[in-house]
Amino acid sequence: QAGPTQPPSVSKGLRQTATLTCTGNSNNVGNQGAAWLQQHQGHPPKLLSYRNNNRPSGISERFSASRSGNTASLTITGLQPEDEADYYCSTWDSRLSVWVFGGGTKLTVL
Amino acid sequence: EVQLVESGGGLVQPGGSLRLSCAASGFTFTSYAMTWVRQAPGKGLVWVSTISSSGGSTYYADSVKGRFTISRDNSKNTLYLQMNSLGAEDTAVYYCAKDNSPYGSGSDDSGFDPWGQGTLVTVSS
């Protein structure tokens, strides 16, 4: 069950803005939206954004999610060293009746 | 504080079985769907299975269908994953996570939050 496509890696400078993408199809991202998760090495994932693009309590406003067509995006403004992590999107595939994760993007803050 | 604590991982021989547990606290367990996700060493997150809040609906990844069984005991606030016919490809850290929806298929405000610390399952002879 192939999930949405995410670029394997993105590198940006300190205090810059990074936009991570998650491209699926009309059965998953296109009609279900996508949630976003952050995972630091050796730690469990943490939810950054629900499928409706809202942030859970306690998540910084520097993280914002959106969707256009079959592509979901996570924008991180004012990059900080602690933002260096792996980022995953997840969504429900309504045709296959399964949850799917993107392959993840490793964000490097230079 | 919402907390999920997995247990039951360990070393098992190929073809063997293992049952994972996830003890939940700090929220109304009966109101939320629960999910298992695994992560092989150095690899990405892979969804394994989800169960609705009532336990009436269950969903499985093709890779585990027929071998794994998800269940929950709402009287004990505990989620389970029975794993049979284990192979090397099942070696991973297994996480349990709470969804923000009672439905196994989620809802508009779905998201897996929080996650447990994970339990390592190693399948090797």
Structure description:
In chain A, the strands form 2 sheets. In chain A, strands 1, 3, 4, 7, 8 and 9 form a 6-stranded mixed beta sheet that branches. Chain A has a 3-stranded antiparallel beta sheet with strand order 2-6-5, with no helix packed on it. The longest helix of chain A is centred in the first third of the chain and has 4 residues. Chain A has 110 residues and is mainly beta. The mean pLDDT of chain A is 96. Chain B is an all-beta fold and 125 residues long. Chain B is built from no helices and 11 strands. In chain B, the strands form 2 sheets. In chain B, strands 2, 4, 5, 6, 9, 10 and 11 form a 7-stranded mixed beta sheet that branches. A 4-stranded antiparallel beta sheet of chain B has the order 1-3-8-7, with no helix packed on it. The interface between A and B is medium-sized, with 29 and 29 residues.
Sequence stretches where pLDDT stays below 50 over 5 or more residues of chain B: none
Q: What is the arithmetic mean of pLDDT of chain A?
A: 96
End-to-end Cα distance of chain B: 40 Å
Biggest sheet descriptor of chain A: 6 strands, mixed
Report Rg of chain A.
13 Å
Sheet having the most strands of chain B: 7 strands, mixed
Order of helices and strands of chain A: EEHEEEEEEE
Report the end-to-end length of chain A measured between terminal Cα atoms: 34 Å
Percent range for β-strand residues of chain A? 35-45%
* Structure class of chain A: mainly beta
Compressed to H and E, one letter per element, the order of chain B equals EEEEEEEEEEE
| Alpha-beta content class of chain B | mainly beta
What's the rounded overall pLDDT mean of chain B? 96
Number of DSSP helical runs of chain A: 1
What is the global morphology of chain B?
A: globular
Instruction: Tell me the helix content of chain B.
Output: under 10%
Measured by DSSP, the beta-strand proportion of chain B falls in over 45%
Strand elements of chain B, count: 11
The residue ranges of chain A in which pLDDT falls below 50 over 5 or more consecutive positions are none
